[in-house]
Write a structure and sequence with these properties.
2 domains; about 25% helix; about 210 residues; alpha/beta; Rossmann fold
Length: about 210
């Protein structure tokens, strides 16, 4: 009998029991897009937040995206892609360094972020302004879910781990799959996990069906 697969994410997948981990609140700060050369997008929520603005103000601005998924989210609203990172915020540093330091970047971000790539770049003289366009909090769904023993648990962000652990304890009978190293670092010490080779839910699901 195959193990049940629980996916803790704000996205869903037909092969898993999908548990929404976060409730998202979109913000709409005033932004003068004309001040910047490029956008930095590290989540699909940033693209969702952009829908609140006049498309004519930003769609001609190519975006540096952290992953294929975040790039697709910007393309879905009509945006152009400048480049795509390796799935982690820290990987964007090398991408940004290929551009002149005079380049003006706008990072559309969450209230809380896991990567410090902006400060790393700023220390070397690169111009990145940050604007918070959404914030999140743990969902009621993740607090109330009952996970079966011997199930596969997939976590897609550090916050999904944090929110799960507020109300639950990870069992030694569970198999843990995480979408990347940053998410793995949110797990308690001593908890074994499998890190997906690609930062995508599909890659995590492919791993889970073989456990």
């Amino acid at each position: 009998m195959s193990k049940k697969i629980y996916l803790f994410s704000i996205s869903s997948h037909p092969k898993a029991i999908s548990i929404n981990s976060l409730d998202i609140k979109f913000l709409k700060p005033k932004i003068d897009f004309s001040k910047y050369d490029y956008l930095i997008i590290t989540s699909k929520q940033a693209s969702e937040a952009l829908k609140q603005y006049d498309k004519n103000e930003y769609l001609d601005m190519p975006a540096l995206c952290v992953s294929v998924q975040s790039a697709l989210s910007y393309e879905d609203i009509g945006g152009k892609i400048l480049d795509i990172g390796g799935g982690y915020g820290d990987n964007l540093v090398n991408k940004i360094k290929t551009f002149p330091k005079e380049t003006k970047w706008l990072y559309l971000r969450a209230k809380e972020v896991a990567s410090n790539f902006v400060s790393t770049c700023a220390d070397e003289g690169y111009l990145i302004e940050e604007t918070i366009v959404y914030e999140s909090q743990c969902s009621k769904a993740i607090g109330h879910v009952r996970v079966e023993e011997d199930a596969v648990l997939i976590f897609t962000s550090p916050s999904s781990v944090t929110c799960f652990l507020k109300n639950h304890v990870l069992s030694s009978s569970n198999k843990i799959i995480v979408i990347g190293k940053t998410t793995a670092s949110a797990l308690p010490k001593g908890i074994d996990c499998i890190i997906s080779a690609e930062t995508s839910i599909e890659s995590c699901i492919n791993l889970s069906v073989h456990l």
